[in-house]
Each structure stands twice: as structure tokens, then as C-alpha cells.
Amino acid sequence: MNVKTTGRRRAARGTSRHDVPQATATTAGGADGDASRDAPAADAAVLDLSGAAVKVGGRVLWHDVDLHVGAGTFTAVLGPNGVGKSTLVKVLLGLVPAAAGQVRVLGRAPGKASGEIGYLPQRRSFDPSLRIRGIDVVRMGLDGDRWGLPLPSLTRGGSGRAGRRAARDRLREVIELVGASGYAHRPIGRCSGGEQQRLLIAQALIRRPRLLLLDEPLDSLDLPNQASVAALIARICHAENVSVLMVAHDVNPILHHLDQVVYIAEGGAASGTPEQVITSETLSRLYGTPIEVLKTSDGRLVVVGGPEAPALHTDRHAIGGAL
Amino acid sequence: MIGDGLFRAGAAGGSGLSWNPLTDLWQIWQYPFMVNAFRAGAIVAVLAGVIGWFMVLRRQSFAGHTLAVVGFPGAAAALLLGVSISYGYFGFCIAAALVLAAATGRRTVDSGLSAESALTGTIQAFLLACGLLFAALAKGFLQDTVNGLLFGSFLGITAGQVLLLAAVTAVVLLILAVIGRPLLFASIDPDVAAARGVPVRPLSALFLVLLGTAAAEASQITGALLVFALLVMPAATAQVITASPALSLALTVVIGIAVTWAALIVAYYSPYPIGFYVTTFAFGAYVTAQMSTKAGPRRRAIRSLS
Prior knowledge:
The complex is a heterodimer. By secondary structure, chain A is of the alpha/beta class. Chain A has helices at 3-16, 30-38, 85-93, 134-143, 152-155, 161-177, 193-205, 223-239, 274-277, 280-287, and strands at 47-56, 59-69, 74-78, 100-105, 117-120, 211-215, 243-247, 260-265, 268-272, 291-295, 301-305. Chain A contains ten helices and eleven strands. At the A-B interface, strand 5 and helix 4 of A face helix 9, helix 10 and helix 14 of B.
């Protein structure tokens, strides 16, 4: 994606939003979404958590999470397996209630802004025999939650021609943005893991969300694909001004793209820039046991700790438990 | 609908095949019960095709089969009680769908039916046995009646039954027209659909009820054991041919009607149950589609290069 097309798309964001037919009052929260989307200043908080905690099955998973995410920033959620990183995403989506503290998503309560959030759940891969094209899966992101026939050409006759064209243009645009034009018409089960992930990112992006919630999108990808999908997400984040919150178990593929990090451990949570959070002092405090953070010559971070902690970093790609 | 299978062509007063296919078709068209059979066949093929298309995408074929088999004890019980067997099919199939929906409703979409498959299979076998008992208890009916319930029959379909089938199909298609898009979303991508506010679980339960209704309808043409001929095969064939949702849905309906009508014509001149012919023609379509797409990718690749 060259700079010129990016600039054009960015300039078009403010005006072309309403061309996409789904942005009308038929979607849940669509009407008030439009009003409040234009009202707040551009630098209003996309995410605002203070003292947030969550309970699952009566057990407190994490507590005292403070996080402030501004527009167009790239934030990673890090922490050991099972600590509830995915649950944080579900809290932000309004699927799991917060047990304490305050959670605001796009200035509203969680779940009230679902039309402006793109979501990529953890480890989704499609059955190889699934006979649906990638482009259809992307299209579902646009109008899949609307009641009516799944055949758009039959439901919106006559008057909806402009809307249909806008939807088709947006579909093509977003598929080009993630570089999926070459395989969007193939059955999605036949696409590779990296190709599926790019199509799913396109699905999450198609409604021009202000926030992308990605749950381990690099998991199950090989190293070159991890790097290119990470670069794609960072480019979307900064060039399209979409805030990204990404759950990751390995920070290294995204480290040089990150603006902010939330580290969740059983002992609490810390947030700040990667340099502030991924340090021996902070992690030792969170785990309650001595932890050392080493930096390799190529800038990768490696976490070394006592017998309890390193086992939590089950990274397959770096020997010695890269964070 | 329940007929004297062995002598159906003779009993209908028709003669054997002539050398002129048009004469044969014209002859078939002379009998009101055959006209009703063609109407009923088309109606059933449309409903079973559309519901089956979603069922194949959702990988709920086992649930579909269970619901279809449940129709057999339903129909046999209706015989025993002396009411229209349509009520038996619909009553049992829809009740079974509600039970399945309640049993799987608390689980996630993925683990739902596969986790319940042993239980479902057990109940399915028991109900099949109940059906045979009911049929045996309903004395005075020939073995052919039971064959008709299991493997299909097309004789004696009344105009009233056609009307009932049409009404049920219209209601189900109307519901499907409203829930179609979110149902497709929830079928393929339940997590994201749920995050977007699609009621995934209620939709899943509602779909099971629609599936039960379609299975009950299809049972009345193909018999309880061969419902898949109309539920799975046209949809599976269409999805082999194309991955475009709109096109494969349309193809499903066309294939369903084509195999049903072809089967009706052949079955009219043949002593064997219609379910066999529907299944055989649908199977032939599926194999043909598979074989032609195996050869297809090479041709397409060459075309896209040029």
C-alpha cells in the first residue's frame, strides 16, 4: 500500500462513512453511534479502564488494570497463559461483565459500541471443506448481523443500488488494503493460515471501526507470516487511525510497532510503554519472584525467571522463553 | 401417499413405457394423483434444499438424520390412531427438534451436537424400533405401508396435503428470509457474530425446529430413511460446484426439483419405491459434480493465466 492511496482513504474517512449501507439506523446502536462518533474530539479516549477486575466462576482472574488508549495507538496485552487476556477482550466487548472498577469503550459502557469495534477471536481456522469464499466471510462483517435474506441482490431492489455499489466498493477496498485480492474468491477453507488471517482482518475492518480487538492473531502463523501480518496491523493502526488492542503471547514480532503494553499477571497488572513495563523490576513485582529481562543483539526481549515463571512463556519460536 | 407399492403402475391404470417420451409424460399428467405428486415433490424439494443448504454449512447432518428418522414412529403412530400421517411426521419431528435444541442449547455451538451424538444415536435407534412396533400394532396394513414410510411413496397425495405442504413451506421460507443472513453469519463465524449482537443460540434452536419441519416434509416423499436424498445431496452437490452462496443456494433448489421430478417419472413405470430413485439421481448428480470439478481447477488455472 503506497502512501498516496493511504492518504486518499484517510481523507475519505470522514465523509464516506455514511455511504456504507450498514451504518444506518438498522444496526444495533447505529443511530446513536453516528451521533456520538462525530461529537467527541479526535483524541478522546478509545479505551479507559481504571481499577478494573474480572471474576470468572467466582475466582478473580485479574484486578487493578488501569489502561488508557488513545486514537490510532497500538497496544499489546501480555501475560502468562490462563491469566485472562482473552477475558479482557470479552469484557471490552461486553460479553463478560467487569467485577470492579470502571470500563469505558469509545466513551460508552462495554457492548454499547459494537458497531464501531472490529473483533478477531482467538484461533479461528476454517474447515478445509467449507465451501464459502473469503469474500463472503469478509462481507459478513459488513451486514452479517442484519435481518433479511443473505442474498443482497434480492433484498435491496431498485432504490438500494447506490448502497449496493458502496458496499461492493468498500469490500474491494478493504480486501486490497490487507492484500487479499489474489485469493478472496477462493473457498476460505482452501486459504493458508496467513491468508485466512488477512481475510479476517479485512472482515473486522470493513465497517471502518475505531477500535480493533485482536486475540492472538499471530498464533499458528509461521515466522515470515507473523512479521508481515504484524506489519499490516501496525500500518492499519497508524495510517487508518484505528486503535488496536492485541492479545499476544510473544511480544517480539510486534515489539517495534507497539505504542503501549499492558502486562497482566496474577499479582496485578502494569501498563505503559514497552520500555517501562517489560523490565526486570516490573515483572519481578508482578510475578512476586525474581525475573530478569534480557535484550538480544537484534532487540528481541527474553524473559528469564525462577522455576515458577518461565514455564508460563510457552513460546515456540525462541529458545529460552522469549516473552 | 401410502399405496400399494408393488402394483402402483397397474393399479393406477397406466400402461408400460411407450417409445415416445412425450406420450409417456402426457399419460402421467392425466392422473390427478400424479399431478399432486409433482406439486408435492417440487414443494418438498424447495424446502428441503434450502434448509439442507444451511444444514450442510452448519455440519448438522446427524441432527437432520435423527429428526428424519423420528418421523417414522410419528407416521406409524398416526396410522395407529387413524389420523393423517402428515400430522404424525410434523408432530414428532418438531417435538424432537425442540428436545434436541433444549439438550444442546446450554452448550457452545461447536461442541453441541457432536458431544450429544451418542445420546442422540441411542434415542434415534429406540424411536426407530418404536416405529416398527406401532406399524405392527396398526393391523390391516401391508408390509408395503411400512416400506412406504421408510423408503418413500407418492401415491394418494391429496390436494389437501399439497396445500398443507405448501403452507408449511411458505411459513418456513418466510422465517428463513428474515433470519437468513444472521443465521449464515452465526453458522460460519459464531464468535464474531455473537460479538456483533447476533443471538447465536436462539438462532441455533430455531434452525433445529426448521430442520425438523423440513425433515418431516421430505419424509413424506422420500421416506424417513432416505430424507438425506433431498436434505443433503442437492446442497452438497451445489456446494461442490460453486462456493458462491447465492449461486449454490439457487443450484440446490434446481437440483432438488430436477431429481424429484425425474424420480417421479421413473417410479411411475417401476415397481420400486420412489426414495430409491430420488437418492440414485441425487447421488449421480453429486458424483458428476465431484468428477467435473476435479478436472475443473486445471482448466480454470489456465484461463486465469491467459
